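Table 4 source record.
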Amino acid sequence: MAKQDKDEKEYASALRKRAEDLADVGPEYLADISREKAHQMIHELRVHQIELEMQNEELLRTQGELEESRSKYVDLYDFAPIGYITLGQNGSILDANIAAAELLGIERRFLIQRAFHSLVSPDFRDTFHVHRRQVFQTLIPQACELKLLKKSVEPFHAHLRSIAVQDDTGTPVQIRMAISDITERKQAEEALRWTNIELEKALEELKACQEQLLQSAKLAAVGELVAGVAHEMNNPLMAISGYAQLLLEEVKDESIRADLETINKETDRTITIVGNLLSFARRCEPEKKPLSINKTIEETLELRAYELSLDNIQIIRDFSPDLPTIMADRNQLQQVFLNLINNAAYAMKEAHGKGRLLIKTLPVDKLIRITFTDDGAGIPPDTIDRIFDPFFTTKDVGKGTGLGLSICYGIIKEHGGRIYVLSTPGRETTFTIDLPTITPGDWLST
């Protein structure tokens, strides 16, 4: 095919040379040409004319095909769903299709010669400059994600894929970019991320509930053991109390009567403690009833009186005598109070081997406020915000589950109240509980 083209070009060139030679000769030369030679020359000229006409038709056909192809390309380029932009070496826009103009909210004619980086959100301009430099340096397709500005609209997330265009010497002179709006994808990714966070949080809560159930099962087993021991102790204690009362009726010696009264008094106190243990350990469904906060705290203190005395923990009571009645579950509140008392005793004993726990009750508007203030080491500021989180504990390994205060938080919240903590490191910690009171109408309805 190449040889044929070459031969045709050489033939056309030779024919043209002969025509030029004939054009240069004078009329006297034409007069000497024979008729036969003149017919030959005319034939050759006609053949050449026909060839030129055929070549012209081929050129016109090829031009038409090129125009058609160009039209198709322009349509595909202009109406493509993806934005296409061509940049010069200096980063200015040389060409843009309709989709690019719509993405950026600017007419095409106003995009031409505009610096593309001016359409990039300021926070992402460094990203674009790095991307552009990599395209020119590597000469391989590059991609990046950034935010582009859109007139009168919030910046949108875009995906850029770019390739360098080289001249005949291999020097990169342009960048062709394909731009896609990925805002919906980014929003979906963000929604998915938050869903994952919520799922992880739900999983942690589920683990906490499972741990609480396990701890409750352990406590239930211990409670049954304590209830059994307390029940076995109650019978002999009742016998001791009964014999002491009989002896008091018969003995007249004052010194012996004083000893018997002490025996009777301490036996009654022990019976009361055993009764509280039985009540605390007894498994029962949560049931809210009108109760006295002061009395419930006293009953809880009796459960720990002996251990607190051994640990040199002094209990200071500042109970308001005029507290209104509260609607609550006695066993659950005892669990809260016992946990706070145990935590305070542990903190004070660890700090200086002894301590002073102030328990205060007072009415505040339509609430009852209960505070537990110990003089332990306090809670560090970096951990106080996590104090009610499940599994968080400041105690040594094996000395705490990290569930006590989270359970307390749940119980108080379920009672319509709130519990919070204030602490001064090195001085004291105060846990405060606010519980709603009940009205006379509430009392009658129960």
